[in-house]
Write a structure and sequence with these properties.
Elements lengths: L12 H18 L9 H12 L9 E5 L5 H8 L4 E6 L2 H13 L5 E4 L8 H7 L4 E5 L1 H6 L5 H15 L6 E6 L4 H8 L3 E7 L3 E4 L2 E4 L2 E7 L2
Parallel strand pairs: 1-2, 1-4, 2-3, 4-5
Antiparallel strand pairs: 5-9, 6-9, 7-8
Function: S-adenosyl-L-methionine-dependent protein-lysine N-methyltransferase that methylates elongation factor 1-alpha.
Enzyme class: transferase
Keywords: Cytoplasm, Methyltransferase, S-adenosyl-L-methionine, Transferase
């Protein structure tokens, strides 16, 4: 894929640290868990879709990449899923997510991890492998990084591949910056499309499009 997005502060760790520092303050003051980045409905669609999958039992190990405030995992925990893990490269995001889970008395594991860097053997061992790996907006944020976004996306995908248990594990990604076709091309070396989760469409100039794209991939081998 030759096309690159313009770099943005949304692709920097400093932006998210400052953002989650504010959200921690708001949460402690008002109980406000903060924003669900771009399209809260997509989170509901993913949870509903997972609950319909016979192969995804409530005991399945689920990993949320770039978990932010952790509300996706909170939603799964409220539906009875038990082995939930969230990672984010922002320590402040993990602090907020832990506070929310603790106050809700939910058993969710959270840790700081930068998925654009190669995980060392201990980090890989600590995380383990997962039947479901979920990304809503993290690949987008990496793509907006002002510094070497292509290399960072490549390392990210290599890390995701290692985190999936086997060829039947699911990698679910929701993007507002890349189309389904672009994701298929970018992921084609390591992943194959398994399913498209329908999202709202719009029609403009005789063409039909979507504001967000949600696609489920599996390992190529």
């Amino acid at each position: 894929m030759d096309t690159e997005l313009n770099g943005s502060e949304l692709g920097t760790k400093d932006y998210w640290e400052k953002s989650y520092t504010r959200e921690i303050k708001n949460y402690k003051s008002h109980g406000d868990v903060g924003e669900i980045w771009f399209d809260e409905d997509s989170q509901i669609r993913i949870v509903d879709w997972l609950m319909e999958q016979d192969q995804v039992e409530q005991s399945a190990r689920v990993l949320d990449l770039g978990c932010g405030n952790g509300m996706f995992l909170v939603a799964l925990a409220n539906e009875g899923y038990k082995q939930l893990t969230g990672v984010d490269y922002s320590p402040k995001a993990i602090e907020l997510a832990k506070n929310i889970a603790e106050n809700l008395k939910l058993d969710i594991n959270y840790s700081v991890a930068d998925l654009t860097q190669s995980l060392d053997s201990q980090e890989q061992l600590d995380l383990g492998s997962f039947q479901v790996v979920h990304d809503k907006g993290t690949y987008d944020a990496i793509s907006l990084c002002p510094d070497n976004p292509k290399e960072k996306r490549s390392q990210y995908l290599a890390t995701v591949e290692k985190l999936l248990t086997d060829k039947d594990s699911l990698f679910i990604i929701t993007s507002c910056n890349w189309t389904e076709e672009e994701l298929e091309v970018s992921f084609g070396e390591k992943f194959v499309k398994y399913h498209t989760i329908p999202t709202p469409t719009f029609k403009f100039g005789g063409k039909v499009g979507s504001v967000v794209t949600s696609v489920v991939f599996k390992k190529n081998n």
